[in-house]
Model the fold of this input.
Amino acid sequence: MYTIQQYKDSVQYIRECLDGFEPELLMILGSGLGGLAQKVEDPICIPYGDIPYFKRSTAIGHVGRFVAGRFGGKNVLMMQGRLHAYEGHTMEEVAYPVRVAGLLGIKKLIVTNAAGGVNLKFAGGTLMVMSDYIKFTLGNPLIGENIPEFGERFPDMTYAFDKEYRQLFKDAARELGDNVEEGVYFYMTGPQYETPAEIRAIRTLGGDAVGMSTVPEVIAANQMGMRILGVSLVTNMAAGVLDQPLSGDEVIEAGEAAAERFQRIMTAFVERM
Ligand code: HPA
Done:
């Protein structure tokens, strides 16, 4: 368990690096989407490894640093690389940077990820705005002594993803002549991809996309009262939809192929926020 003092020490270090710059928005960039960090004006880069109590990101395609600066007309803090439970981190560790951002005064969160398409209409390249999530796996960033600075013991999750942000993102895409879907993100810890039977079960339970990230951060951010937009890039049809195995390379390639389009819509969304 981290203590509130540890969180405050991390905040203090980041404040010193930011040197008066005050971010209003945290953006967690998922697989293949880290390129958005290159679009930040006058960037201040803070490697996670330099921040007291931060864990390093070891996942492929995840650089492992904060990039702060101007983006889409806003003061943003981007996470270029995130932590996942499958790297051996507890959910509390995965959510740590989000809580630090909350203590920095950030009240808005955009979280993106790569996901498998469970909904049969979602082919590779589909962008899905998260309307809700399902998490049935063990582990939870809120388990343990409740730290009142973060919020209530039993936070409400009725509107885990902000309704207005969901609509704004869809509007931004439409104005660019693009189309985005909406659906439920089903969380799995991984790191193995799902079995075809698991995917059928997830579909029956109401999942539209499946992935190995995002939900721990969304839970912690909700507890802190942040407004959240979540977007999945469907990189592949989930296991068993097609009669062929999945590969990590496919996920990375699809992420790269869709990166530019995704970045364009995201920029338009941030401008409208
Ligand atoms: N399953 C879980 N996570 C994923 C997938 C998938 O098919 N694709 C990208 N991330």
